[in-house]
Amino acid sequence: MSDNPLKDPYNIVITGVGGQGNVMASKLLGNMLVGRGYYVTIGETFGASQRGGSVMSHMRISGKTVWSPQIPEHKADLIIAIEPVEGIRVLARYGNPAVKLLCNSHPVYPSSVIRGEIDYPSPEEIETSVRNLASDTIFINATEKAVSLGNPILAGIVLLGTTCGTGVLPLNRKDFHETIVSRLADQQVKLNMKAFDMGFGLSKN
Amino acid sequence: MSYLTDKQNNDYLLMGNEAIARGALEAGINVASGYPGTPSSEIIETLSSVAKEHNLYVEWSINEKVALEVAAAASFAGLRAMCVMKQNGVNVASDFLLHLASSGTRGGMVLVACDDPGALSSVNEGESRPFARLVEIPLLEPGDFQEAKDITKWAFELSEEIRNIVMIRSVTRLSHASGNVRHGQLPDTLARADFRFDGPLSDPETGPVISMIVGTPDLQHGPQQEKIKKAAEIFEDCPFNTYEGPEKPELLIITSSACSLYSKEAISLLNVKDRVGILKLATTWPLPPKLIKRHLSGTDRILVVEEVLPILEENIKVLAAEMAHEIGPKTFYGKNAGNIPSVGELNPDIVVSALSSILDVHYETVSKSFAEKATALVETKAPVRGLTMCPGCPHRASLWSIHNALEMDGRKGFVCGDIGCYVAGVFPGGFNTVKTLHSMGSGSGVASGFGKLKQFGMDQPVFAVCGDSTFFHAAMPALANAIHHKSPFTLMILDNRGAAMTGFQPHPGTPINAMGEEVPSLDIAEICRAMGAKVEIRDPFDLEETQQTLHHLIEHQEGTKVLILRQACALSPERKDKPKYRMEVDEEICIGENCGCNRICTRIFGCPGLLWDKEKGVSKINDIICVGCGVCTDICPAGAIKREEVA
């Protein structure tokens, strides 16, 4: 590809907890980019995803070649966090002062928090400390939007919409539509488009 | 039509496992079999999804050994066959594999083993690679997604050329990663199966297919070794062995699999491509000696980058020792020298660290102050996410009842476990009930042994757990052993209707097979009864009845008993998005810390569907993830958790 406007490779980490639509979001985003002629490499860590564990997708976008399915430490350009504490974990390991962070503000509590052994940080604490590390951060309540559409798993799609809305990637609504039409049933396409549009709109606030 | 069966040469984003499946389709595969196991399961799932359309026979077999036998039959009848498993499956299949490698194969036959360096979703960090050398068959390791497809296709041709099974080894970071793959042609397959056996024993094409006649190893073992020599010759010109770098590199990296991508990245990060070359090997056993010699001749220093055991490293060192008089002495870096760890998976940073110390190149990613702030942030603001079971998981209810029954008994009873989601029984989320954990079905065999220790004064009650798929895979022989030897313990079969942990693949107890056909489902209870065990069946969501049954089983310990705890997985198609109850906490009744229950629902039972509302000092339901199983209603001693049946 000749006119790649992105840094090469451009590195994205999508992170969350099992059941949040992490893998689906990375698959759709990857397919949108391949549709645009990019080489995309995605590394997934989802072995423990259904059992309350962290899920992480590493995405490499390049005009020339596939890359390692694991991003080197501190080399992420964009972090999409479907769960705030997972966002913190990824930011600390893969972030750098220039990273862009898009964060769902809705928490999923670890079992140690449910048991009352450890406190989960308050939204204010999370926001202040994250901004202290990464100034280019957007917080949205993607889960709330997803629940309003009837399924919290759409949070990943809401965040994809916001990502595309910010213009950080060379992708638009049409790319998303084309990708889901080829992969999902008609009924799901409508719902996913709604979630995407909701997220897209949030980027303009 | 699925993107996996597109006949055009288009570019797709494929998972490594999908690429392997596509490679098999491009090779015109006829039969595929396997047993589910992360990270291998999607290969058979993908082939299963296109089986009808492509006239394939695809099977989820009862275990890996049977899977290999099923695939071998197809090869004996002249068809192309593939067998797929995770690493520890190769251990299970290895007895037949040894004998198959000796008899040889006819139609192209490929074994795909997916290893899990770092044990990301395994309870071992075992290696399948040594099996290739152990049973003397060729080993191929794809280095990226395109190669995962292309090498799979090539492996069938190689198998037919040398008339033996060929092993492909993938790893989690290829199988469960995705990258661009350009499709090749899909052939039209009109294969016909015909097993020929009328020829002489010595004729591998027309005679009976046997591994060896007692006392005459020269008949089969000799020709087998000729096959592996032929493979080494073919490997000298294998297009998937590639070199990138200067003609005479200061340091030569020899690597394979996902490690080749980490190595390339490390060279790029350190900007040392003028100093370091990468020899990426796809044919890692047997190694092609001339190719290795050519590359060793061009450098004095070699770094071998591979995951877990130093297998490639040691095989290269053997060749280097044999060639020493021609190529001179070499300095080796790798695992034995301590540059590359032997535990855990690798990544680009580990290779960077090895390279920067060998080449004395400085590498810094972020400022010290950023790194310090980042570490502090994680330590103070990111609570660790321990493994637990899903909201509404029947295993939580089962382990809860087992835990309570054992505590009430007070004789330090325990549970022997094996591989399944119930490994969480080792942790607080599973109430620390599981005290031994090893291989598929091992809990049943270990419990059979513990049961016989009464003779030595052991009076601790013994339980074993296994899943329904595991029961068929490996627990049945252990149960037969226990019954025959009158070993007093109770096997609890946590029957959640399918191989849930790996994605609900069918097993002999389910009514549909991998082809989507209706098949007879074997009744686990009837099998156990026929074996001679006393069998009870309970719904683990009925806590009271389950615990009463457990008390009774603990009190009457003679003989081997079976308790089937039957309830579908919370993620299964029959339960997912179909809550039985609408749950609510009555804040008037829940008095929190003043109750005396010690917050049993959230602090001890710990279903993620429950939350502790700190401000109000009461429990509440997490509506977003609660699946409405209703069990917590029976946990709450105050009756504060209300359930209302969903109409």
Q: In short, what is this structure?
A:
Chain A is built from eight helices and six strands, in the order E-H-E-E-E-H-E-H-H-E-H-H-H-H.
Account of the protein in words:
- The complex is a heterodimer of chains A (205) and B (647).
- Chain A is α/β, with parallel strands linked by helices and 205 residues long.
- Helix content of chain A is 42%, strand content 18%.
- Chain A is built from 8 helices and 6 strands; from the N terminus they run βαβββαβααβαααα.
- Chain A has helices at 22-35, 84-94, 111-114, 123-133, 142-148, 155-166, 173-183, 186-202; strands at 10-17, 39-45, 54-62, 78-81, 100-104, 137-140.
- Chain A has a 6-stranded mixed beta sheet, sandwiched between helices.
- The radius of gyration of chain A is 16 Å and the shape is globular.
- The termini of chain A are far apart.
- Chain B has 647 residues and is α/β, with parallel strands linked by helices.
- In chain B, the strands form 6 sheets. Chain B has a 7-stranded mixed beta sheet with strand order 3-2-4-5-7-6-12. Chain B has a 6-stranded parallel beta sheet with strand order 16-15-17-18-20-19, with helices on both faces. In chain B, strands 9-11-10-13-14 form a 5-stranded mixed beta sheet, with helices on both faces.
- In chain B, α4 (87-103) links the parallel β4 and β5 (109-115).
- In chain B, α1 runs parallel beside α6 (145-162), α15 (394-409) packs across α19 (543-555) and α16 (442-451) packs parallel to α17 (468-484).
- Chain B is globular.
- Chains A and B meet through α1, β2, α2, α3 and α4 of A and β1, α7, β8, α9 and α13 of B.
